[in-house]
Predict the 3D structure of the following.
Amino acid sequence: MSVVGYTRVSTQDQSLNSQSDALRAAGAEFIYSDKLTGKNAARPGLAECMKFLRRGDTLLVYSTDRLGRSMTDVVTIVADLGERGVEFKSLTEPFDTTTPGGELFFHICAAFAQMNGRIISDRTRAGLASARARGRLGGRPSVMTAERVEVARRMRAEKATWATIAQTLQVGASSVRRALADDTDEHESKETQ
């Protein structure tokens, strides 16, 4: 049963010393570190730390913002630790899954993070539905304009290959295929009748 620390600073210029000193003073036997922004999903120090942790260990951080990019991210990491039998403590916040009160506080925060995620998801869906109702579809406009589709139809009727059509129109072959998918479906259904 080890106490394992994790520290992170956002840039190479910043020092990990104050976090490391606080974690050692709180009993951390091993400390893993990253010197990069929390927005970077690839955090090699955290990945190594997560591999090292075993059932009965405790992960100790100076503060939760050092562990994750968002509360949702922290909740996901701590839930994964809990499933593996690893406890979690933050030195500067009341997150301490080794105590009933700390575990309750974590679950309350997790519920708020989940609720916030659902609110964002609901707002996104409502915005997309509103845009669709106004005739606006998401994503980039198609490179296949009406003129290009007509040229592609003529070329395809003359037995040109998808690659030749795409090269002529200076678009990807998959764009041509998608634009002519209805034509192809109709043609194939006529052949099978």
